[in-house]
Description:
This protein is mostly helical. It has one domain (14-138). It has six helices and no strands. The protein has helices at 10-45, 55-63, 66-86, 91-98, 100-113, 119-138. The longest helix has 36 residues, at 10-45. It is globular and about 50 Å long. It starts with 9 loop residues before the first helix and ends with a helix. The relative contact order is 0.14.
Amino acid sequence: MDAVEPVVSPRKxxxxxxxxxxxxxxxVVGSAAGQLLLKKGMSTMGPLTITADQILGILWRIATNxxxxxxxxxxxxxxxxxxxxxxxxxxxxxxxxxxxxxxxxIIGGWQLFGERIDIWRIVGSLAIMTGVILxxxxxx
Length: 140
């Protein structure tokens, strides 16, 4: 008896690819949103210097900061989507998409925290976007 190979319709394969990319993008947004909230929370605490006699107090302040708690929660949720994406795509395809969070961070830092964006950050962001577009084309 001949082995029967499953028939995979092109439409179903396309749907899996699209879902993996959706997972990746949700993970990127979750990571970026989480990091922005972490920055907001840590900014409210002022500069920290970690010493042996202050570590427990610092950890308590961090653990009870609502921005930090919510930021960590969102970051973990994004990680769940990242893991789902990794279950569907090669790491060498998925991982470069994570660099999109750099672009979100630059814009978020500028908009939310008044951080300066110079020409080098813009050029770097364009290079990242170009690389992601090239890698996305390899998955088609």
